[in-house]
């Protein structure tokens, strides 16, 4: 291989690494946001008195 081909291959590998890192960062941000949303939904769904009493009047 000549120097130009090695330089091109190295440059392409570096670009692929940068793109992969950017995609992973976007995915991480998305997953973090989904986790926060799930936490909010779980907090809203908590009803501590639910199921504590039974209405037996007819």
Automatic annotation (TrEMBL):
<dbReference type="Pfam" id="PF14070">
    <property type="entry name" value="YjfB_motility"/>
</dbReference>
<protein>
    <submittedName>
        <fullName>Putative motility protein</fullName>
    </submittedName>
</protein>
<dbReference type="InterPro" id="IPR025906">
    <property type="entry name" value="YjfB_motility"/>
</dbReference>
